[in-house]
Design goal:
Elements: E1 12-17, H1 25-29, E2 33-39, H2 47-54, E3 66-71, H3 77-96, H4 109-127
Antiparallel strand pairs: 1-2, 2-3
Length: about 140
């Protein structure tokens, strides 16, 4: 289960911009798309979470460590604002759980023996496929 992450409203800078695409005259006169900017370094997130977020390599994260999300799926400004915040929270929730460290393991002695026996058997089958000499 992922822990729920809530972002304080003052940490995410939300700007209304004009949406692109279909919408007729409405698109030209109404700013209903949302541009969300979230500075990872200046946020109140825990330090390990900030580091994992920066290392994520997501195209929405700039080199300066600012998450930029553009939401324009809805015709309503409020719905787009909520969508942008939800997407930011989903991005942060992706890195909220620390990945398990991988422990190196070795195959058992019987597994190694079985593998080598099957390789030898397969090699013998292939060796028997040579050309038949007609002496």
């Amino acid at each position: 289960m992922r822990p729920s992450i809530t972002i304080p409203p003052d940490e995410a800078e939300i700007t209304a911009i004009r949406a692109q695409g279909a919408g007729g005259q409405n698109v030209n006169k109404v700013s209903n798309a949302v541009h969300l900017r979230f500075d990872i370094g200046a946020s109140s997130l825990p330090e390990p979470l900030k580091a994992r977020l920066r290392a994520l390599g997501d195209q929405r994260i700039s080199k300066e460590g600012v998450v930029i999300i553009k939401a324009q799926a809805f015709r309503s400004l409020e719905k787009n604002r909520a969508d942008a915040l939800r997407r930011l929270e989903a991005l942060i929730a992706r890195v909220a759980v620390a990945p398990k460290t991988r422990r190196a393991t070795r195959p058992t002695r019987s597994a190694v023996k079985k593998r080598l026996e099957s390789k030898a058997r397969r090699g013998a089958i292939k060796a028997g496929r040579g050309r038949v000499s007609g002496d």
